[in-house]
Design a protein that fits this description.
Layout (H helix, E strand, L loop, with lengths): L2 H28 L6 H8 L3 H7 L3 H23 L5 H14 L1 H7 L2 H12 L4 H22 L5 H22 L3 H16 L7
Helix pairs in contact: 1-2, 1-4, 1-7, 4-8, 5-8, 5-10, 6-9, 7-8, 8-9, 9-10
GO molecular function: DNA binding
InterPro entries: Homeodomain-like_sf, HTH_TetR, Tet_transcr_reg_TetR-rel_C_sf
Organism: Actinomadura physcomitrii
Length: 200
Amino acid sequence: MTDSVTRPRARGADKRRRLTAAAAKVLHEQGVERTTLADIARAAGVPVGNVYYYFKTKDELVQAALGEHTAHLDELTARLDRLPDPRDRLKGLVEAWMGGRDVAARYGCPTGTLAAELDKRGDGVLDVEAGRVIRRLLDWAERQFRLLGLPDAERLAVTLVAAYQGMSLLANALRDPEIMTGEGTRLIRWLDTLPTPPQK
C-alpha cells in the first residue's frame, strides 16, 4: 500500500479518534441535550462539516462517547489487574476515583451522569448501552471480591460502585471535591476491614 493511500486513512482515523474523545468530554461537561455537533467539532479541532462524514447523528456520537468510557474503564482495570492483590486493585480503583475529585465535583461521574440523562429518553438503546458500561465495572469489582474469597461478591461490588455514584453525585451537587476525598478514604478503610479468608 502506498503512502498516498495510508496517510489519508491515518488522518481519517485520527479525526475520528479526536471526535470521539471530544464527544466524551463535551457530553460529560454539557449533557446530551445542550451539546451540539458544532460544540464537539470545536473541541476536536475539526470543521463541523467533517463531523457528518464520521457520525451522521448526535446519537452516533453519544454511542462513540460511551465506547470511549468503556475504553477508559478497560484501560484503568487493565492497569489495576497488574497488581498482585485483588484488595489492592479495589483500593487502586477508589484512589483513581479520588484522583478525579475535581472533575467529579464540577460535572459528576462521566458514565453515571450520561446514564441518568439517557434513561430519561427511554429509547431502550443508548440508555441500555450506558448501563452496560456500569455493568462492566460491577463485573470487574465482583471478580476482585471473588478472588478475595468473600461471600456475596456481587453485593459487595454493588456496595462499592453505589458508594462511588453517591459520592460523585454529592460532590457535584455541592461542588465539593472533598466529599470524594473523605468518602474515598472511608471506602479504602472499609476494604481493609473485609476479612481475608484462610488459605487452603
